[in-house]
Amino acid sequence: MSEDLLLPFQYEYMQKAMWVSALICLACGFLSCFVTLRRWSLMGDALSHAIVPGVSIAYLLGAPYALGAFISGTIAALGMGFVKAKTRLREDAVIGIVFTAFFALGLFLISRYPSGVSLRTIVFGNILGISDPDILQVLIIAAITLGILALKWKDFMLYCFDANHAQTLGLNTKVLHYTLLTLLSATAVASMQTVGAVLVVATLVTPGATAYLLSERFSRMILIASGIGAFTGFAGAYASYFLDGSTGGCIVVFQTILFLLALFFAPKHGMLAMRAIRIAAVRGVPA
Predict the structure, then answer these.
(1) For domain 7-283, which CATH number applies: 1.10.3470.10, 3.30.70.260, 3.30.750.24, 1.10.10.10?
(2) Which of 11, 228, 270, 274 is the most buried (most CB within 10 A)?
(3) Cα 133 to Cα 274: distance, rounded to the nearest angstrom
(4) What sign for the dihedral angle of Cα 41, 43, 44, 48?
(5) Phi, psi of 229, deg, nearest 5
């Protein structure tokens, strides 16, 4: 029985899938803390869909898929900022318009000019079939993302909590804003290999939201979210071998289970704890 549990480690493709998934989900978990504080959940969803046309265009030009996806995501992010600055539209409306337009363009290009990467792979990911060049791209993106966030996490924290206060302290909020958007776009590109364009938003939101329920200190929140990302990335890829299911789906299901556990059982902010506090307040007993 114990030998059966070690079967995934006997295959090179499974070892690659587990370790690469753990690394990119760790980076997503770290970044998700800032996405949660900045309330950029929709932005993450938008960028994950906006990278689709970049993949098709990169194939037509003979360029790396990751480069095309990154440029496409960056253009979408800049486009959202431009439309928001020049109109009276709410941010959610701008995001909805831009990301659906980019996704529709991507679907059109893929249907009109079929690429070497199938639509299913782009939408749902295929970490089990990841090539060595793609692994290198993911490693570089994850390393750069983690490095920048680790060096500047306090600046990003101040910006996400209160941009105006961060500006009064002398921080360049425009640089922080576009750096965070760039990291978000790059990480969405890397995550596309693991969970696909549809589920990228989950890896960029769920770990941070879970950690937010479990900790009131941002530094601890980062550690918890990063740990959740790495654990679910590795465990999801591992479990997909036995379940014969989508690796990305397994990863996101594990993250959702951990979120639900935190939602109900978190010591201070879980539903059971909050209910106990309300009952104690009604009875006049100190919580």
Answers:
(1) 1.10.3470.10
(2) 228
(3) 49
(4) positive
(5) -60, -50
Residues in the chain: 287
Its pTM stands at 0.84
Cα–Cα distances in angstroms (integers) from residue 65 to residues 52, 133, 159, 195, 227, in the given order: 10, 11, 32, 16, 29
Measured from the Cβ of residue 115, the count of other Cβ atoms closer than 10 Å reads 17
Q: How confident is the model at residue 122 (pLDDT cuts 50, 70, 90)?
A: low
How many degrees, rounded to 5, is the angle at CA 202 between CA 201 and CA 208? Answer: 105
Q: Which residue has the tokens 């690469």?
A: 20
Res. 101: pLDDT tops 80:
yes
- What is the average pLDDT across 262-269? 88
Measured distance between the N- and C-terminal CA atoms of the chain, rounded to whole angstroms: 47
